[in-house]
Specification:
Layout lengths: L1 H19 L17 E2 L6 H4 L3 H8 L6 E8 L10 E10 L4 E7 L4 E4 L3 E4 L2 H19 L5 E5 L2 H9 L3 E5 L4 H13 L13 E5 L1 H9 L7 H19 L6 H9 L3 E3 L3 H9 L9 E6 L5 E6 L2 E6 L1 H14 L8
Parallel strand pairs: 1-10, 2-7, 4-11
Antiparallel strand pairs: 2-3, 3-4, 5-6, 7-10, 8-9, 12-13
Helix pairs in contact: 1-5, 1-8, 1-9, 1-10, 5-7, 6-7, 7-8
């Protein structure tokens, strides 16, 4: 029981760190130094968070509703930059059922951003930091998110290495792109030599290789499969750490928590984890939104957006989080 508490707490911190690894798709920068912990803050009134009276009423009428947390991966060169959140995941924790769900939101989704108008959802973080980013998710998808986490993706590579790597089934078409991103690390001076992946198939990736894997975009269905790679690495790591025993806690304390930006304190996160101790369902359920059937790519003013019926997408998202209805996508 106590061991599983450590595992769940680790997931809350580290699962997001892996989600960030895809952020560098449009930039080759990686921090050379691990930054100190950043304590984020949010104004948590319903109005400031964009939680409507309708949503508040619906949540209040539920028995033990899931707790939803926004996970952002922000493309920034230092902790003071306000850049696009190219990774957006809603982590839902159902304490009663012992369920953990990840809902990826496509970064190019065309939404309304308060004070800006219609734009890509990933622009909200650059325009107004985590406060506006959380508010944008809540307003467009009728959510009740009150907390967020964000982390420099460089830390994800450090954590993968600390765990001894992660097992990933790499496709033949992905190998050259993965190695190309590893070469970029050499070009910017992050590493002196690229440790290339020599073949396809199930294999153990080190930290930099895992980060490179989740950056791959130009294979398969582009950004659609990129979000799948993010979740694949997260799930693989979670499955690995479930059996790691109590030795996981020092890793969490020394290499995860110091690099985490969050609006939550450690006791709050421990409370989330303790609520699902002993649950039978310890697997991560995952989905990507908007659904294929509810979205289409469109150029507006010569910029590509993923347009969607926001109301229909909100319903599909709610069905997954609150009703255990698994959505279907092409990938």
């Amino acid at each position: 029981m106590k061991s599983y508490l450590n595992h769940l707490l680790f997931l809350l911190h580290f699962g997001f760190m892996l989600s960030y690894s895809a952020v560098a798709q449009d930039t080759t920068f990686i921090h050379k130094e691990v930054k100190p912990i950043i304590k984020g803050s949010l104004i948590k009134t319903p109005e400031a968070l964009g939680i409507s009276p309708k949503v508040q009423k619906a949540i209040n009428e539920m028995t033990n509703p899931p707790i939803n947390i926004a996970l952002f991966g922000v493309d920034r060169r230092n902790t003071h930059d306000q850049s696009n959140s190219d990774v957006i995941i809603i982590l839902s924790i159902n304490q009663q059922k012992g369920q953990v769900k990840m809902s990826s939101i496509m970064r190019d989704t065309y939404v309304n951003i308060e004070g800006k108008g219609m734009d890509k959802i990933n622009a909200a973080f650059a325009l107004g930091g985590p406060q506006l980013a959380v508010k944008t998710i809540n307003q467009n998808f009728e959510m009740d998110i009150k907390d967020y986490m964000n982390v420099d993706f460089y830390s994800a590579a450090k954590i993968v290495d600390a765990l001894g790597g992660v097992m990933i089934d790499v496709k033949e078409a992905e190998v050259p792109y993965l190695n190309n991103y590893l070469d970029e690390l050499v070009n910017i001076g992050t590493v002196s030599k690229a440790e290339h992946v020599s073949k396809a198939g199930l294999q153990r990736l080190n930290g930099n290789q895992a980060v490179a894997y989740t950056r791959i975009r130009y294979v398969g269905r582009g950004d659609y499969e990129r979000t799948e790679r993010q979740r694949s690495v997260m799930v693989a790591l979670f499955n690995q750490i479930k059996n790691a025993g109590q030795n996981m806690f020092p890793v969490l304390a020394s290499q995860v928590m110091p690099n985490l930006e969050t609006s939550m304190n450690n006791m709050t996160m421990l409370g989330f984890a303790s609520g699902i101790l002993g649950a039978k369902n310890k697997a991560i359920e995952q989905a990507r939104f908007p659904l294929d059937k509810q979205s289409t790519g469109k150029r507006i003013n010569n910029i590509w957006y993923l347009t969607t019926d926001l109301k229909a997408t909100a319903v599909s998202l709610h069905d997954f989080i609150y009703k255990d209805i698994k959505p279907l996508n092409k990938n």
